[in-house]
Design brief:
Distance between the termini of chain B: 39 Å
Structural class of chain B: mainly alpha
Number of strands of chain B: 0
Number of helices of chain A: 9
CATH class of the largest domain in chain A: Alpha Beta
Strand content of chain A: 25-35%
Number of helices of chain B: 11
Structural class of chain A: alpha/beta
Shape of chain B: globular
Order of helices and strands of chain B: HHHHHHHHHHH
Number of strands of chain A: 9
Largest sheet of chain B: none
Oligomer: heterodimer
Number of domains of chain B: 1
CATH topology of the largest domain in chain A: Rossmann fold
Number of domains of chain A: 2
Largest interface: A-B, 30 and 17 residues
Strand content of chain B: under 5%
Helix content of chain B: over 70%
Order of helices and strands of chain A: EEEHEHEHHHEHEHEEHH
Radius of gyration of chain A: 18 Å
CATH architecture of the largest domain in chain A: 3-Layer(aba) Sandwich
Strand order of the largest sheet of chain A: 5-6-7-3-8-9
Helix content of chain A: 25-40%
């Protein structure tokens, strides 16, 4: 699936990731010959069941893992380069926060990592706390936050550096319907302002709500890819219609559940 | 908490030190202070450093930090520098506590000579020694309750200030100067296992990193003989600054080696 005339923000070409044990023996092939592109301004969804290789792919795009084979380019640069990472924001699957820091201190810490000056950081932190609705609890240690509040704070942390590309790993994972709606509204609002979003999910309704284009990953391979607006049907039916082989029936079965 | 307990034990025992002079008044207190710095220092250098690094890895906060525009090597070195600062703060608290203990032994000895026995000293000494941690805990709790200060850092800061105040008030300057010369090489030497702990904990899990640090400490054993400075201190002697410089000169390449190794580990992590 092409990205038409859009600038290519993320490009994966024949990417393979094999995890090894202490003695360097291969243990699992998490990603197998993955090729895909994400264009500027798109909201791209990487869908698939647990263990399909979504998070590994995301970590390779972030430069946290190196591919065994193939190449990953971020804004045309290596994902390990500081220049490329200065242009991205990342929301991990779980909210990894220092529990003893307050919400404001957490955002200041990440602002420092983004190289923001003291005054600029203070302004940005206040703006983000207001945006995610945590201004009232800015001085509370995040260890006492609910899952939804922690998720919103993590989202704010991913936006501190004013990223051009926002990478979301299961953004609504473990959230109640109200918090899920809040997070989706935030993501949609960012996307409407032109931000490129790459998100993973195993929740089809979430993906259908926010994505322009999706790719289905199963056992480390893309088994289906398409533009959500062109489906003419629900995402679930799209899978059933487009995915035909035995392996993918397993996936379709999973998706039905 | 380790510092507070150590301070309590040392200060309670202070009067008894007077009766174990080994050729010099307060010698045992001096030796105990430097030994505490050495043994507690090694422990404090290794375990909190491993914990600081592994907790970042295991809690996922490292992943979150490294997704920002920072180099892995730079992040590792910054964390190692933070561990070094924390270690030297710890060493300073232990050292000032030792000075108070030495002063206590000295004063205790003089009072015991007048009153004719050491037994009467234990009550006041125990009360005085207990006052430092209790006062620190109470004031720390009040600051937390009414001014929203962090509890643990507040308690440490108050304990440090009280110890330092005690050291300034009671300590005999000549003994302090001599102990400082003995303490500096000991404190410097512990930075080697600290840097090793930082480097190993990037690549290995906590137990493996601690074991590897144990090997580093074992390799340092032959050199530990040089840190037994009691003989140099006995009879009013001082550790020459040329010796302190020599220890620093020997330590710097080892620390640099482990920091470079750690930065290399950090840059390569994720490639496997």
């Amino acid at each position: 699936m092409s990205i038409e005339n859009r600038e290519c923000v993320v490009a994966l070409d024949g990417v393979e990731k094999v995890f090894r044990d202490f003695w360097l023996r291969p243990t699992v092939k998490a990603v197998d010959g993955l090729s895909m592109q994400v264009g500027r301004g798109e909201v791209f969804g990487l869908l698939g069941p647990n263990g399909s290789g979504k998070s590994t792919t995301i970590k390779m795009i972030l430069g946290l893992l190196a591919p065994t084979r193939g190449s990953v380019r971020l804004f045309g640069m290596s994902p390990k380069s500081v220049g490329a990472r200065a242009r991205i924001g990342y929301l991990p699957e779980l909210s990894y926060l220092h529990p003893f820091l307050t919400a404001r201190e957490t955002l200041r810490y990440y602002a420092g990592l983004c190289g923001l000056g003291r005054r600029e950081a203070a302004d940005r932190v206040t703006q983000l706390l207001n945006m995610v609705g945590l201004a009232d609890v800015a001085s509370r240690p995040v260890g006492g936050f609910s899952k939804g509040m922690a998720r919103r704070l993590s989202l704010a942390a991913s936006l501190v550096g004013k990223p051009e590309l926002l990478i979301l790993d299961e953004p609504t994972s473990g959230l109640d319907p109200v918090s899920t709606k809040e997070v989706k509204t935030l993501v949609k609002s960012l996307a409407s302002k032109g931000m490129t979003v790459l998100t993973t999910s195993h929740l089809l309704a979430d993906a259908q709500d926010i994505c322009d284009r999706i790719a289905i990953l199963n056992r480390g391979k893309i088994v289906a890819e398409g533009r959500v607006a062109e489906l003419g049907t629900s995402l679930e039916e799209f899978f059933l219609a487009t995915v035909g082989d035995a392996e993918s029936f397993e996936l379709a079965d999973f998706l039905k559940r | 908490m380790l510092v507070l307990v150590a301070a309590l034990v040392m200060e309670v025992l202070a009067p008894a030190f007077h009766y174990h002079q080994f050729g010099e008044p307060t010698r045992m207190a001096c030796d105990a202070g430097v030994s505490a710095l050495f043994t507690c220092g090694m422990v404090f250098a290794v375990f909190p450093t491993i914990r600081a690094f592994r907790r970042e890895v295991e809690s996922g906060t490292l992943e979150m930090a490294l997704a920002h525009p920072v180099s892995r090597g730079g992040f590792f070195l910054a964390k190692a520098a933070g561990s070094l600062v924390a270690y030297f703060a710890f060493a300073a608290i232990v050292f000032t506590t030792s000075l108070v203990t030495v002063a206590g032994a000295d004063i205790g000895g003089r009072i015991a000579a007048k009153t004719g026995g050491v037994a009467r000293l234990y009550g006041p000494c125990f009360a005085a020694a207990l006052a430092v941690p209790v006062l620190s805990l109470v004031v720390g709790a009040a600051l937390n309750r009414f001014a929203r200060f962090r509890f643990v850092p507040s308690v440490f800061a108050i304990a440090a200030v009280l110890s330092a105040a005690g050291a300034v008030w009671f300590v005999v300057p000549t003994i302090a100067a001599r102990m400082f010369g003995a303490a500096v090489p000991v404190a410097i030497s512990a930075t080697i296992p600290l840097a090793a702990a930082a480097a190993f904990s990037v690549r290995f899990k906590s137990n493996a990193a601690a074991s590897a640090c144990g090997i580093v400490v074992a390799l340092m054993l032959p050199a530990f003989g040089n840190y037994v400075l009691s003989d140099a201190l006995s009879g009013g002697g001082r550790v020459p600054w040329s010796y302190v410089s020599l220890v620093a000169a020997a330590t710097v390449p080892a620390v640099a080696f482990f920091l470079v190794l750690g930065a290399w580990f950090a840059e390569g992590e994720g490639s496997r």
